[in-house]
Design brief:
Elements: H1 12-16, H2 19-24, H3 30-49, H4 58-73, E1 81-82, E2 86-88, H5 99-110, E3 117-118, E4 123-124, H6 132-139, E5 143-147, H7 150-162, E6 166-170, E7 176-177, E8 181-182, H8 183-189, E9 193-197, H9 205-211, E10 216-222, H10 238-247, E11 252-257, H11 275-280, E12 285-289, E13 300-304, H12 306-314, H13 316-320, H14 325-337, H15 341-347, H16 349-354, H17 358-374, E14 379-389, E15 397-405, H18 412-420, E16 426-427, E17 429-431, E18 434-438, H19 447-466
Parallel strand pairs: 1-16, 2-14, 6-9, 6-10, 10-11, 11-12
Antiparallel strand pairs: 3-4, 5-13, 7-8, 12-13, 14-15, 15-18, 17-18
Helix pairs in contact: 3-4, 5-14, 7-12, 18-19
Bound molecules: pyridoxal-5'-phosphate.
Length: 467
């Protein structure tokens, strides 16, 4: 009878004194090394109990420990390559920022800033003043307020204007936003009472008219964002609702979501309502996100009537949803680009990606496919669709060119998983049982990393299969 192979495993102490781990100890805290060594030895012991014949070599053990330590030291939040073609991908952080916005965030966070300081008078200032002027200038609003995100903007608006009162919303607009976040719940949590009118597919002017009364705090119009209702459909536009709200002396809150600033809206957003357009239609206040079509940082923007905005600013809840200095810096820099619409279309990455010409996408896809083929990775280029994402124009697919990859003997699912677990992680999708890479959402300077990552993933996925 041979000796128990588990006895051949080193102790934690012995493993830690091996040269590779002694070297690692100069970079990683000892506690992490000890935990990782213990876990690796436990796993090896369990594998031997389960029938493995020979223990792993000392080199193999130290490399397993090093891999575990590296995993623990890696930040939780890190960059990924977005090869999905979804420009405003909420799970992937929505809008990539313009360079000037990134620089502004760095500049304002390295040291101190005049966040709440009036430089001219040397007295206390307000953080809410920083982007307000630009927002007024760009939207034509009387006043503007920036908060943490659009959900906060909606809650603050309703809590300020309709606390303890009715908020009238069409049943067709009671949307759920990613992550089970519903407009209906937000209205309740804002301290207002939700009054639904109309039916899912049809809401008429008379439905609103009937619901209006002495208890009404606000009319709420919600942009449908992430879905479309088609067929037998009727809705009342904000332009029609505005006079009704005014004649009853109640505010019309228009939750626009997407946050398009350009009027007229540029291609491919021609069917979207812009913030200046929504204000011109007569909304009392318009709320929108900073990181959707606007292409800036996560923020909630409220623009509209001066008294309404001032009341929101004085609401104690405002303090709970205030933006930080980096948000304000990035937002101001992004907004500044919009002073010249042509410049915004070029310098705001989200807009540039949405408007990338098909010919250019095809050219990039073919060049990229050529590089993959040079590495022996079979692929082809095919026309397909990208998406705007972020709750904008759900029915507007963007014609694109896809690089379809599917090496022999590797399933699309296995390759997709290998892409995700590489460094940096690559997020792609499956089209026709092949992995589809859409370069619309990949910057030119990210292409080498994408190429290396795909090659490494194909290699790993094939190796796993043949192991
Ligand atoms: C996206 C969206 C929201 C939520 O905005 P956040 O900035 O994610 O908080 C609210 N309403 C509508 C209509 C939206 O599209």
């Amino acid at each position: 009878m041979s000796a128990d192979p588990r006895r051949a495993l080193p102790s934690v102490e012995e493993l830690l004194t091996s040269p590779p781990l002694r070297a690692l100890a100069t970079e990683a805290p000892r506690g992490l090394l000890v935990d990782a060594s213990r876990a690796v030895l436990d796993d090896a012991r369990a594998a031997l109990s389960d029938g493995d014949a020979t223990p792993p070599s000392p080199d193999e053990l130290s490399s397993r420990v090093a891999a575990r330590v590296a995993e623990r030291l890696r930040p939780s939040l890190r960059p990924v390559l977005n090869a999905t073609g979804v420009v405003l991908h909420t799970n992937l952080g929505r809008a990539p920022l313009p360079e000037s916005a990134i620089q502004a965030m760095i500049d304002v966070s390295r040291g101190y800033s005049n966040l709440e300081y009036e430089i001219d008078s040397g007295s206390r200032g307000s953080r809410y003043d920083h982007c307000a002027g630009l927002l007024r200038e760009l939207t034509g609003a009387q006043a503007a307020l920036v908060v943490n995100n659009n959900a906060a903007a909606v809650v603050l608006a309703l809590n300020t204007m309709a606390l303890g009162r009715d908020v009238i919303v069409s049943r067709g607009e009671l949307v759920e936003i990613g992550g089970s976040f519903r407009i209906a719940d937000m209205v309740e949590r804002a301290g207002a009472r939700l009054v639904e009118v109309g039916a899912t597919n049809k809401t008429r002017f008379a439905d609103y008219e009937r619901a209006l009364g002495t208890r009404t705090g606000a009319l709420l119009k919600v942009h449908r964002s992430n879905f479309a209702v088609r067929g037998f459909v009727e809705e009342v536009s904000a332009a029609e609702l505005a006079p009704l709200a005014r004649s009853h002396g109640v505010p019309l809150v228009h939750d626009l979501g997407s946050g398009l600033l350009l009027e007229p809206p540029p291609e491919p957003l021609q069917d979207e309502t812009s913030a200046p357009g929504a204000l011109a239609d007569g909304a009392t206040v318009v709320t929108m996100s900073g990181d959707k079509l606007l292409g800036g940082p996560q923020a909630g923007l409220i623009v509209g009537d001066a008294d309404a905005v001032e009341a929101m600013r004085r609401n104690p809840l405002c303090r709970a949803v205030r933006p930080d200095r980096t948000t304000l810096a990035a937002l101001e820099a992004t907004l500044a680009l919009y002073r010249d619409p042509e410049r915004a279309l070029k310098a705001v990455p989200a807009l540039r990606m949405m408007r990338a010409p098909l010919a250019r996408l095809r050219e990039r896809a073919h060049r990229f496919a050529g590089r993959l083929a040079e590495r022996g990775i079979p692929c082809e280029v095919r026309d397909g669709d990208s998406a705007i994402g972020g709750g904008a124009a759900p029915e507007t697919p963007l014609p694109s060119a896809l690089v379809l990859v599917r090496p022999k003997g590797v399933s699309a699912d296995a390759l997709l998983a290998a892409l995700r677990t590489g460094e940096p992680p690559i997020v792609a999708r499956i089209v026709d049982d092949r992995v589809a890479l859409d370069l619309r959402t990949v910057r030119d300077d990210e292409e080498p990393a994408l190429l290396a990552g795909v090659a490494a993933a194909v290699e790993r996925a094939s190796r796993l299969r043949h192991a």
